[in-house]
Amino acid sequence: MKEYLDLLRRQFNDRVRFSEKRPGVYQLIAPFYHEDGDMIEIYLDNPEGDGKIKISDHGMTLMRLSYEYEIDTPNKRRIFDKMLCENQVREESGRIFIETQPAALYPAVLQFAQAVGKIANMRLFKREVISSLFYEMLDEFVMESLVRFGPKPDALPIPERDDLEVDYELQKVAKPIYIFGVRDVAKARLTTISCLEFQKARIPHKSIVVHEDFESLARKDRKRITSAADKQFVDLEDFRTHGEEFVERNAA
Prior knowledge:
Number of strands: 11
Order of helices and strands: HEEEEHHEEHHHEEEHEHEH
Strand content: 15-25%
CATH class of the largest domain: Alpha Beta
Strand order of the largest sheet: 1-2-3-4-6-5
Helix content: 40-55%
CATH architecture of the largest domain: 2-Layer Sandwich
Distance between the termini: 71 Å
Number of helices: 9
Shape: elongated
């Protein structure tokens, strides 16, 4: 192992050093940093029988990430797995790692540091990640927390009008409850039109609109959709907190 570490030190122009944490496990002290200035933790494990060296973070990246951002839904997990795949690293029991032949240790370390930096930045881009998952997170809540009300995705209250699709129709209620997810102005306007058309067709129902961010809509769009919908939730967290109670009150 020592000869590979000496080679790596030379390849980094003597700008790195190593700290042996336990027999066969060395921490690489190198000028790789997270966005907040903390050093990226990189460990080199002694070659196994196949002669490969394992480069690992020993679980520190996901631990840092968990302080502000949890990978706690299937959709977040899919994004995380995609990042692993794109950066050619793996994860096992919370540890991110890559295995390499000793001769390729230098480029593998550079690749690993870059991958860990990107994954750790999921916490810095939390708002953008959550935004991209709005419809997936809404789907999770409706299909799990409201399952007893018989949610049917992609419903067509007026069969011949496939342009007036409802995101979810709750069927196990006295009269149908239509749920619309609204992330942008285009969906807000389509939802407004749909609600007005259902009223015009005299379809017995109640409509619920769940916004990603109600305040982001222009004043005229807020006014129109407020006039057309029976109930609105200003964001997904509002719906998670109060949506089930509202449905229960209006289910009978």
